Each structure stands twice: as structure tokens, then as C-alpha cells.
């Protein structure tokens, strides 16, 4: 499951003003939030196909993500949305209409649009019920195709922009619209990459043109070529083999064919160039990014020069221009065009992150574990450390700027970002390595890296904490319960705390994800859910924990978090709770800054100080208790 984004644009917190005191504390999200901050959304502007100088992008407006237009020729921006809770989904169609998804706190809503230069807000298609966004495509002739998610199914609609909708197909479970041909005569739907229906190609009337299975080799659809080549429509895909990732193409006459001459040892994604003959391939490898320009027809591959670090986004444009969103740990994201096209101001903090940033490899049970380590510049000997645990679980930590890393390093902490087993960016074997040990293999890797850093004299053995969001929050709670006393504090933001309870109330996508990870539902394999669930170990938690939850969270629902907090209280475990009046993917900077300040203060209080005596697990104290259940995640949420 993907977590709420860590917002690198949030102003770093360097003070230590978290609430004091022991026991259980609950506060409102906005307590102590600073008055001045800004946020940013890590994506490139969407570019109008007919007029590439016209773009739509997401940026800060009074501490919230809102949609703007950008006229590159005039270097002028205009704010389009003014939603109280912000928004982040946007698009611009060939006729330069700007689109955005008008959603509520739980992520349900509808697509709206307006002309580039302003005008009334209009529904993309009329007669479409509210739901979650699962893809949007607008063709040259104003034909709109959109995927809308419901409680247990996905419906695809089509029609003319602003006109009535016609249902194309309704599919049980989660699928996403991955693109349409220029004429919208064919459309591609993406299902679970390892399923029998990984990709389905439909005609505009709902007829099935092809079903591509990912059961033997996982398969992802990336979009149709913007122009027909040799009179044929062509769909771009990526296929995973036993040890490689290959670009692939599907055509109505030729079917699926891979390009083994262009194989990569770690995950890739790709986008068509406007000419429809070349693709831009972005490889994620060991926490960093590399770009390539590939000619699929003539079998050419050339690296596109970029700075060392990570590319949060990269998109090919006309005349071989490439737009890039670059960053590394020491530098906030910077957006640039290889052809010098004027891009909108990004609005990130103009600073260099102090400290010593390095890579470290640790011997682990499944193989070498890669860690991105940041140490305070003025350290003298071992220092308190915080392990930032990434979400996903199909994700990885990158050599990229992170506002939390900045805040912690500036406050004197070491920060370790561990790409444990199951992380992307290290090849198919590492991705599959955890097997059925959902959460357990990952927490073992975190413990192994902790021991390595202590052994090297870099961090204090008595002052190491954990901080994670969503799936990362799940691992924090699991680690604290499985190895009481090893970690001295934990921060779990919007976590899965009870896998079985979360499965019953989460989104369809995450229910399907749980069932793939655990091999069934809580009713069919209850022991697996219990073994890998934080609530099963709540009675053993010996270290103080701050749990941050959202009252409208559809992915990591609030009910299962409340159950976990009840279990902590019954065990007499020291904990604090902070509740946000938002959903899982919040767009308000105020909430993110409030969490940042609260968490840094909490960790400062718990990790700084004299050497501590070993703690007695609550299960050994009077009143200790134990329970069972909990959660997981995989491809996307």
C-alpha cells in the first residue's frame, strides 16, 4: 500500500517542542502547527499535445496542493482550483482544457474541466457516479475515456467532452485505464501485473481485442503510441522475467513481442516520444535513476545524460526535449528541460541539506541490504538515529531530498533509509525474496542494519527509533512488538495495525493485495494474518510509540487503529495518539507540518539523554495482554 507522501517542500523543523509527559496522550492535528510553510507535489507538468507551451501542474497555494496552468511562452501561471482540502490529480487535453479530480476526504469524486484561459467548471462526462480515479484519456477529437472505481468494481465510460457518458465495460475488482489509441478506437486496461488478466485491450464498444496474461511473467501496460507506425496501433508494456525487465509491444496483428536486446536488471518504466518510434526508459537501480532513449524498431539504446541522484519524473517532449524532475539527498527537487523550455517554478526550499550522506551495504539473511545513511555534520562519536521505513511495499527509498531527513539531520539525528527485502530497484529476486514472510523479513533486515551501524560506531545502541508511513507504519509497529527493547521509540503514521480488521474495511485494491500477499482472506488463512499482524504483538511493546491516524482514511481505516490503541492501553504500554481530520492521501501542508513537529519532538524527548536500562516487556508485567490479526500491501494502492 502506498503511504501519504512525505512532503519535501515542508519547512524543516529544527526545534524540540513536542509535548512532554508519559502515558497516553491525544491531540488535534493542528496543535502547534507553524503559520508559514509550503508544499509541493513531486511530478512534472502535463503538456498539451497541440501546443506544448501550454501546461497544467500541481503546486502550493496557501499550504495546499492546487492545480495551475502554465504558459511557457509568456512565463505566466494561473491558479485553477481553490479546493479547501487541496487536490493533486490533473491533466491537460489536446484542446488545452485543464482537468482535475474533485475528490472528498476519502478520495471519491469526479473529473471536472475548464478552458486553459479560464471559464466555468464543467463535469468531464455527465451521468457518471462519484468514485475513485482509475485513469483518464482525452483524444484529439474530444473523445473522453475514464475509469471510475466503485466499492467492488471498475467502470469505464466514454463520451464527448462535457457530454453524456456511455458505459463501455464494468469489471469486478481493480483495473486502471492505461491509455487509448489516438482515435480512441482501442483502450488498454491494466489489472494485477501477475494475474491472468494483467492487460486487457478493448475496442470502444467494449469488445475484447486481446487479453494478456502475467501469470508466468508479470506484465504492465504503459500506453499506446501517440501516432500509428506502419499503419498499426502499438501498445507499450514492460515484462518481468525471472531476472530481468524488458520493454515489450503489442499490436493487433502481431500480438505481444518483447525486446530482449534491451534488458535491464532492475525495474524500469517507459514513455513514448512524440514520434511514436522511440521511448524514454527510466531505470531505478540501487536508489538512483538512469535515463535511456531506445529505438524499438532499429534496436538502438543511448543514455540520456542526467546528474547523479534520483529522477522523480521524466517525460519526452517534442524535438527530443526531455523534461526532468531531479533530486538527491542533499538537494531539493529541481525541474528542468534539456532543450531549455521554460517550466513553472517548483516552489521547493532553496537549501543544501547539511550532513554526511553515504551508502552502506549490510550482510542480511536474503543478501546484501542497501541503506542510504545521513549523519549530522558536527557529530562526535555515535549519535541517536532514526530509521525511516519506506511504504509500498513495492517501492524503495531513493537518493532524494526528504523533508523528514532534513529536519532530523538538522536536529542532530542520524537517518537510515533501508531498502529491505521486497523493495523495488534491486531486481526481481530481491523483490520476491520475502516470500510468505510478510513484514517479518523486512523487520529482520531493519534489525540487521541497526546492528551493523552500531557495530561501526556510527549510531548509539540505546537511542535508535523508527518512523514509517502506511506500510512503513505497519513495519514500525511490527518491529516494536516482535523485538521489544531493541528500538527505543517508534512513530507510525496512518499504519495498518490489525491486518484482518483492515482487510474487512479497506479499499478493494488493498483487499486484493492482502489476499495475494497472505494467500487468502482472513477467513481462509487466519493464522497467516495473525502471525504477521502488529496487534498480535501489542502486548509485548516495551518502547514508547506515537501513532498518527486519519479519521477518513479508506486505505488504513481508523477502526483498526483504534483497536490497536485499545490493546496498547490494556497492556500498559506508553503511547501517544494524534488524529488527523483527513484521508490517507492528504494534500494539506498544515497536517504534514503538524505531524513533522510532533514526531521530531517525540523522538527528541525519547532518544536523547543518558544511557537507559533495558526495559521489561509489558507481557511480563501485571495487566499485559495479547491479541491477534493484521495487514499488508503490494503493487499499488
Main traits of this protein?
637 residues, alpha+beta, 9-stranded mixed sheet, 4-stranded antiparallel sheet, 35% strand, globular
Q: What is the 3D form?
A: globular
Percent helix range: 10-25%
Q: How many strand elements? A: 36
| Radius of gyration, in angstroms, nearest whole number | 24 Å
Give the end-to-end Cα distance, rounded to a whole number of Å: 5 Å
Give the helix tally. Answer: 9
SS class: alpha+beta
Integer average pLDDT: 87
**Low-confidence sequence ranges:** 1-35, 610-637
Output the strand order for the largest sheet: 1-36-35-34-33-31-32-30-29
Q: Main beta sheet, described?
A: 9 strands, mixed
% residues in beta strands: 25-35%
Question: What do these coordinates show?
Answer:
The structure is a single chain. The protein is an alpha+beta fold and 637 residues long. Helices cover 15% and strands 35% of the residues. Strands 1-36-35-34-33-31-32-30-29 form a nine-stranded mixed sheet, with helices on both faces. A hairpin with a 2-residue loop joins strand 3 and strand 4. Helix 3 crosses helix 4. The protein is globular and about 65 Å long. The N terminus and C terminus are likely disordered.
How is the topology of this model organized?
Layout: E1 26-28, E2 46-47, E3 54-61, E4 64-71, E5 76-79, E6 90-92, E7 97-103, E8 109-115, E9 122-123, E10 132-138, E11 143-149, E12 153-160, E13 166-172, E14 176-180, E15 186-190, E16 199-203, E17 208-212, E18 219-224, E19 235-240, E20 245-251, E21 255-258, E22 268-272, E23 278-285, E24 288-295, E25 300-304, E26 310-316, E27 322-328, E28 331-337, E29 356-364, E30 367-375, E31 383-389, H1 403-410, E32 414-419, H2 428-432, H3 440-455, E33 459-469, H4 471-482, E34 489-493, H5 499-505, H6 508-518, H7 526-531, E35 545-550, H8 558-571, E36 575-580, H9 589-607
Helix pairs in contact: 3-4
Amino acid at each position: 500500500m502506498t503511504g501519504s507522501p512525505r512532503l519535501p517542500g515542508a519547512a524543516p523543523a529544527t526545534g524540540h517542542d513536542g509535548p512532554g509527559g508519559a502515558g497516553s496522550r491525544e491531540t488535534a492535528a493542528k496543535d502547534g502547527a507553524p503559520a508559514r510553510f509550503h508544499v509541493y507535489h513531486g511530478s512534472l507538468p502535463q503538456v498539451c499535445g497541440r501546443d506544448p507551451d501550454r501546461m497544467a501542474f500541481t503546486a502550493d497555494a496557501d499550504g495546499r496542493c492546487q492545480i495551475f496552468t502554465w504558459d511557457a511562452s509568456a512565463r505566466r501561471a494561473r491558479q485553477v482550483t481553490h479546493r479547501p482540502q487541496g487536490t493533486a490529480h490533473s491533466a491537460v487535453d489536446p484542446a488545452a482544457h485543464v482537468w482535475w479530480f474533485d475528490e472528498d476526504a476519502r478520495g471519491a469524486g469526479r473529473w471536472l474541466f475548464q478552458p486553459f484561459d479560464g471559464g466555468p467548471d464543467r463535469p468531464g462526462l455527465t451521468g457518471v457516479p462519484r468514485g475513485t480515479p482509475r485513469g483518464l484519456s482525452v483524444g484529439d477529437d474530444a473523445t473522453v475515456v475514464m475509469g471510475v472505481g466503485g466499492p467492488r468494481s471498475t467502470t469505464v465510460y466514454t463520451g464527448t467532452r462535457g457530454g453524456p457518458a456511455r458505459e463501455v465495460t464494468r469489471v469486478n475488482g481493480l483495473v486502471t485505464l492505461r491509455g487509448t489509441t489516438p482515435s480512441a478506437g482501442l483502450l488498454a486496461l491494466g489489472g494485477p501485473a501477475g494475474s491472468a488478466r494483467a492487460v486487457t485491450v478493448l475496442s470502444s464498444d467494449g469488445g475484447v481485442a486481446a487479453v494478456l496474461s502475467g501469470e508466468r511473467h508479470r506484465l504492465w501496460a504503459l500506453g499506446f503510441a501517440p501516432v500509428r507506425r506502419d499503419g498499426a496501433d502499438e501498445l507499450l508494456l514492460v515484462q518481468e522475467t525471472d531476472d530481468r525487465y524488458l520493454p515489450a509491444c503489442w499490436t493487433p496483428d502481431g500480438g505481444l513481442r518483447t525486446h530482449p536486446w534491451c534488458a535491464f536488471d532492475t525495474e524500469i518504466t517507459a514513455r513514448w516520444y512524440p514520434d511514436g518510434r522511440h521511448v524514454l526508459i527510466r531505470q531505478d537501480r540501487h536508489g538512483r535513476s538512469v535515463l535511456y532513449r531506445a529505438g524499438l524498431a532499429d534496436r538502438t539504446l543511448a543514455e540520456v545524460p542526467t546528474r547523479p541522484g534520483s529522477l522523480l519524473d521524466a517525460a519526452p517532449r517534442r524535438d527530443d526535449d526531455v523534461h526532468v524532475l531531479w533530486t538527491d539527498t542533499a538537494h531539493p527537487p529541481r525541474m528542468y528541460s534539456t532543450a531549455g523550455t521554460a517550466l513553472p517554478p517548483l516552489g521547493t526550499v532553496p537549501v543544501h541539506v547539511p550532513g554526511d550522506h553515504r551508502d552502506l551495504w549490510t550482510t542480511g539473511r536474503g543478501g546484501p541490504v542497501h541503506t542510504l545513511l545521513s549523519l549530522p555534520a558536527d557529530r562526535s562519536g555515535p549519535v541517536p538515529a532514526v530509521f525511516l521505513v519506506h511504504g509500498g511495499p513495492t517501492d524503495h527509498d531513493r537518493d532524494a531530498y526528504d523533508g523528514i531527513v532534513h529536519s532530523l539531520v538538522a536536529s542532530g539525528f542520524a537517518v537510515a533509509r533501508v531498502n529491505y527485502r521486497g523493495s523495488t530497484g534491486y531486481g526481481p529476486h530481491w523483490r520476491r525474496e520475502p516470500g510468505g514472510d510478510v513484514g517479518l523479513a523486512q523487520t529482520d533486515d531493519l534489525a540487521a542494519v541497526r546492528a551493523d551501524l552500531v557495530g561501526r560506531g556510527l549510531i548509539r545502541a540505546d537511542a535508535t527509533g523508527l518512523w514509517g508511513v502506511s506500510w512503513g507504519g505497519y513495519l514500525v509497529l511490527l518491529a516494536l512488538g516482535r523485538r521489544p527493547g531493541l528500538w527505543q521509540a517508534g512513530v507510525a503514521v496512518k499504519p495498518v495495525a490489525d491486518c484482518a480488521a483492515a482487510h474487512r474495511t479497506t479499499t478493494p485494491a488493498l483487499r486484493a493485495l492482502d489476499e495475494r500477499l497472505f494467500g487468502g482472506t482472513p477467513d481462509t488463512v487466519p493464522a497467516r494474518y495473525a502471525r504477521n499482524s502488529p496487534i498480535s504483538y501489542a502486548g509485548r511493546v516495551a518502547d514508547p510509540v506515537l501513532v498518527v491516524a486519519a479519521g477518513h482514511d479508506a486505505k488504513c481505516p481508523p477502526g483498526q487503529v483504534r483497536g490497536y490503541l485499545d490493546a496498547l492501553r490494556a497492556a500498559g504500554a506508553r503511547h501517544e495518539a494524534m488524529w488527523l481530520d483527513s484521508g490517507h492521501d492528504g494534500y494539506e501542508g498544515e497536517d504534514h507540518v503538524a505531524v513533522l513537529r510532533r514526531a521530531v519532538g517525540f523522538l527528541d524527548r525519547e532518544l536523547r539523554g543518558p544511557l537507559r536500562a533495558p526495559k521489561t516487556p509489558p507481557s511480563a508485567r501485571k495487566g499485559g495482554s495479547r491479541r491477534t490479526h493484521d495487514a499488508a500491501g503490494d503493487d499499488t494502492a
